[in-house]
Amino acid sequence: MLELLQNLQVTLLHTGYAKLGPEWDFDNVISPFIRLFYVTKGSATVHHSNKTFHTKEGHMYLIPSYTYNRYKSTPYHEQYYISIFEEVLSGPSIFNMRTFAYEVPLQEGDELLFKRLVKMYPERKIVNSDPKSYVHRPQELMAQNRQNAQTNTSRFLETQGILYVLLSRFVKNVVPNRTDQSNDYRFANVLRYISENLHTQLRVQDLARLCHLNTDHFSRLFLQECGIRPLKYIQTRRIERAQLLLWTTNQTLEEIAHKVGMGNFSYFSKTFKKITGTTPGKYRKQQKITP
Q1: CATH topology of domain 2-168
Q2: What are the tens digits of pLDDT across the range 252-278?
Q3: What integer is the mean pLDDT of 168-179?
Q4: Which residue has the higher pLDDT, 1 or 8?
Q5: For residue 211, what are the contacts with CB-CB under 8 A and spacing of at least 6?
Q6: Which residues contact 86 (CB under 8 A, 6 or more apart)?
Q7: The CATH number of 178-287 is which of 3.40.630.30, 2.60.40.10, 3.30.300.20, 1.10.10.60?
């Protein structure tokens, strides 16, 4: 887990303050970034990760990237919000390790951190609360962050510090027993290997060999530990990577299909639609919609 966190890079995309009424009612939302918000007034209902959260004033909420969620105001609420692009230099998402809470009470000073980001980046607010109409300018926003790091190092470091502090509020500091540590270590290596080799052919028997297990036993343990079968997990990760490339690059659909290890474009397109509900081309167009 420590190695994973040391490889974690976070980038601020959006931040702002919103007053949301009954129109804040959306289903089938899957964002390629982490969403974090703090409720200051009113209430809302948020569903994700097989849980339902009835938001409370003075509490912060976290929605992991690439997580199906739906939400609505009940009937009105106000929130500070932040969206964060997560990149792990080596290995799976930090959320694969299952060590995060999704609802936590605000700690002393946290509200000031939200307000500070909003003051620092007034141009990063989301104009239209409909997820399909977000100003998805990842390349431009990340380029601005890189320029910020070069021209205003203190502001860049302050931004990074605020993001890490707020994310730290959701970490569960639970020490697993020895058996769980062994399984976590083995499967963390497998998840890292999958993440680093999505562009290649990945076979379950090869993954099992990494754990020194036979294929059947490995598949059962993987399902038990990760809640999904190995091939389904690989397929899902390929499509998540494709979504990221569609969202952040101008590469052709065929190039992206090859980069995620799905050289057969027809199979790639069919699988993409099965998992996301839309085709790769339509998904890319949706991300370019502006208010």
Answers
A1: Jelly Rolls (2.60.120)
A2: 999 999 999 998 999 999 999 998 888
A3: 64
A4: 8
A5: 186, 187, 189, 190, 218, 221
A6: 8, 9, 10, 33, 34, 65, 93, 94
A7: 1.10.10.60
